[in-house]
Write a structure and sequence with these properties.
Blueprint: E1 7-8, E2 17-18, H1 25-40, H2 43-49, H3 51-63
Antiparallel strand pairs: 1-2
The chain binds zinc ion (ZN).
Zinc ion (ZN) binds near residues 23 and 26.
Amino acid sequence: MGLKAFRTCGRAGCPALIKEGSHCPKHRQQAEQREYETKKADPAWRMYLHPRWKKFRQWFLRLEPAMSACH
Ligand SMILES: [Zn+2]
């Protein structure tokens, strides 16, 4: 126990002390939002989220039940 358990927020200039994660609660949301924006811009990630892809995957897993063991 002690101050060693705490570190400062990952956001430059933010003096908030945090116990876990990389940002204080206030900046964590912003960091996650930025991460989501980055992912959203990735075509592979967009395809993965696409409903048609999910349907195809379900169909594929039904067709090859053994393949589902990999996931
Ligand atoms: Zn912060």
